[in-house]
Amino acid sequence: MVDTSRGEAPAPPVEEPRGCLFALSQPPLMIFLTVIGVLLLMAALHDLFML
């Protein structure tokens, strides 16, 4: 049998590592962080004006 291969197979494209900005672009995470931020803001305003 004749070997018709042309050497090694081409390497698959390397995926870039996904960093913090990719994680922050996810809607569930942003909704969660927004809820936490609103709760912290409400607690701060309560401490400032009600106590």
Q: How many individual helices?
A: 2
Strand content: under 5%
Distance separating the two termini: 88 Å
The assembly state of the depicted protein chains is single chain
In percent, how helical is the residue content?
40-55%
Shape: rod-shaped
Low-confidence stretches: none
Q: Give the structural class.
A: mainly alpha
Radius of gyration: 26 Å
Mean of all residue-level pLDDT scores: 82
Overall number of strands:
0
Q: For the report, how would you describe the main beta sheet?
A: none
Order of helices and strands: HH
Structural write-up:
The chain has 51 residues and is an all-alpha fold. The protein has helices spanning 20-24, 27-49. The mean pLDDT is 82.
Provide a short characterization of the protein structure:
With 51 residues, the chain is an all-alpha fold.
Based on the model shown, name its key terms:
51 residues, mainly alpha, 2 helices, 0% strand
Task: Please render the helix and strand layout as text.
Blueprint: H1 20-24, H2 27-49
